[in-house]
Structures are given as C-alpha cells and as structure tokens.
Amino acid sequence: MKNIKYSIIVPVFNEEEVIQKTYQRLTTVMNSTNAPYELLFINDGSKDKTEEILVELGRNDKKVKLINFSRNFGHQVAISAGMDYAQGEAVVIIDADLQDPPELILDMIDKWMEGYDVIYAKRLSRKGESFFKKQSASLFYRTLRSMTDIDIPLDTGDFRLMDRKVVEEMKGLHEKNRFVRGMASWVGFRQTAIEYERDARAAGETKYPLKRMLKLSMDGITSFSYKPLKLASYAGAFLSIAGLIYMFYVFYLNIFTDATVPGWSSLIIIQLFFSSFVLILLGIMGEYIGRIYDETKNRPLYIVRDYYGLEERNTLRRNKPVPITLKK
Ligand code: UDP
Ligand code: MG
C-alpha cells in the first residue's frame, strides 16, 4: 500500500457544473495539510460531461482517481465503493456540490490528530433548500432516533472523517440497502461532532428527489429498527380489546333493544378501519421482506466499468467471492 495519508471520497452523479470548482477547493484545502492525499471520485453513472472532466483532471493531477460505475447505483453505494478503494489512513466522505464546505476537513483532521476515530459534521442550518426538504429531513432524523437503540446523531449527513480502522470495519458490513451514516454509528469507536452551516448547492440541482429521500429514510428505519414490525402486535392487542368491548355492546343491543338492523354504518366503519390497517401492516411487512430478498440474492453491491489512476485493484471484501478454505 502506498503511503497515502488522506483519502477524500466524492460521489458524483451528473455534476458537470460544479465538479471543477469542487476539485479546486478540495485541492487548495488538502495541499495546505502538506501530506500525501488522494481525491477519489466515484462516478455513479453520470450521463453528462462529469466523466470527461474528471478524466481530464486526472491527466494533470495524479492525486485524482476515478471509478466509473456501470450505471447509477445510488449515493450510498457510491460512498461504500469509495471506502472499498480508499487507501488513506483517514478517509473523508464529502458531497460533490460544495454543500459541505471542504475547509471543514481541516478541523476534522485536527480532531483526528487528537485521537477521535469518527468526526461527523452536524448541520446547524441548511441554506438554499426548500422548506419541505428541511422539515422532512428534520422529522426523519427525529423519528429514526426515537425508533432505534443505537445513537444515530441528529441532522448529520455523510460528511465525515473516519479512521482507517473504522473504514475496515465498515467494509465488513455487507447489507445491500445501505444507510451509511447509521452504519458508521453502529460500528462505534470514539466519535465526535463538529457543527457547521450547510451551504446551498454551488450549481446544478439536487440529485435526491422525494422518491430517493423516501427510499433512504426507509432504509434507515428498517436497517436499524424492528419497531414498525411490532406495530402489528401492539395494534392487534389494542383492537382485540376494543373488539371485545364492542361485542358486549352488540350483545346488549341484541338482547335488550330492537335496534340491531340499523347497525350497517358501524359495520362499514369497522370494515374500512380494519382493512386499511391490515394493508398498512402488510406494507410494512413487505418493506422488510423485500430487503430480506435483496440480501439473499447476494448480488455485488455495484459494478465497476473502469478505473483511472488506480494501478492495482484493492482487495474488495464485498465484491470478490471469498474463497473458503477448509481445515483438514
Ligand atoms: N449522488 C450520487 N448518486 C446519486 C445521487 C446523488 O452519487 O444517485 C451524489 C451527488 O452527486 C452529490 C451527493 O451524492 O455529490 C449528494 O447528492 P445531492 O447533493 O443531490 O443531495 P442533497 O444534498 O440535495 O440531499
Ligand atoms: Mg447536495
């Protein structure tokens, strides 16, 4: 392994408008550390000029490395691939759109030198994002926190520095539907936060439409909580008690009054209520079963089309089938 101190992982998906600028700011920041580093771009199936620009940058700067996916596999997979290939002693994950200020990496490095293993960046505010995005993100982080037993910090994205030993542990987590920031909390070690104001995107549009945000939040909740599944048993218990009480009432009506025929409305209401509830619970089951199915298929997490600047393939724990040696 070459002597690289810092690896900066940058997932990119159609970022032709900012990528040059991002490269420059990262380079300025990283040069000021006077330590050997690499800028590892994971091109997540971009359809614009992102790849061309990065290849060109790599021609002039050997610190630039590029991994091209065969198609779009998603942000969380891209950063996971970055961890597979990163060679540095400390590994930083940062967005390509300059919403995470690169200068903050220097503060993270200071904390790392102090002995912390994970330094994550906590957003105090978010600029240039819609009211809906801010509110839904805030609600999501709070819901997730109330549902899980592990300590996933609030308002924290994937912008973080991790020590090599943390990265090695993360590489051993093989789940397919990934929520990397939760996984980083799960592995533990000495973690600390630094706070920052999240900037607006330097250019271009968000690559996280509502559909992807919902997928990410579902991944976060299902990978770290069984609570939604327990909903079925709680609801079942509650409804059977309510049903029992209602049954006595029905008996009463039947025996002591002659008002049983006009019971149509209550029947319909109960019917609607129960069937929608059952459907919701089936949906929750489906979310988990779908993910179990994904795991059992055991497909590789991503497929790399080609590389630039990476001479040797790193050992890919996740992608390569591990040969089984049987003891005699
Ligand atoms: N990204 C990616 N693959 C995707 C979607 C996004 O690699 O399928 C990258 C994107 O280029 C950016 C980062 O992930 O570097 C965060 O995406 P974005 O800024 O669009 O998300 P937002 O900040 O709006 O939540
Ligand atoms: Mg962004």
Going by CATH, the architecture of the largest domain would be: Alpha-Beta Complex
Bound molecules: uridine-5'-diphosphate, magnesium ion
Q: In what range is the share of β-strand residues?
A: 15-25%
First-to-last CA distance: 33 Å
The parts where pLDDT drops under 50 for at least 5 residues are 314-328
Strand order of the largest sheet: 7-5-6-4-1-2-3-8
* Amount of helix: 40-55%
State the fourth-level CATH superfamily of the largest domain. Spore Coat Polysaccharide Biosynthesis Protein SpsA, Chain A
Shape: elongated
Describe this structure in words.
The chain is an alpha/beta fold and 328 residues long. The protein is 48% helix and 16% strand. The chain has helices spanning 19-31, 50-60, 75-85, 104-114, 131-147, 164-171, 180-187, 210-224, 227-256, 264-297; strands spanning 6-12, 37-43, 64-69, 90-93, 118-126, 156-163, 191-198, 304-308. The protein has an eight-stranded mixed β-sheet, sandwiched between helices. Mean pLDDT is 83; it is low at 314-328. The structure holds uridine-5'-diphosphate (UDP) and magnesium ion (MG). Magnesium ion (MG) is lined by residues 95, 97, 99, 201, 206. Residues 95, 97, 99, 201, 206 line the site of magnesium ion.
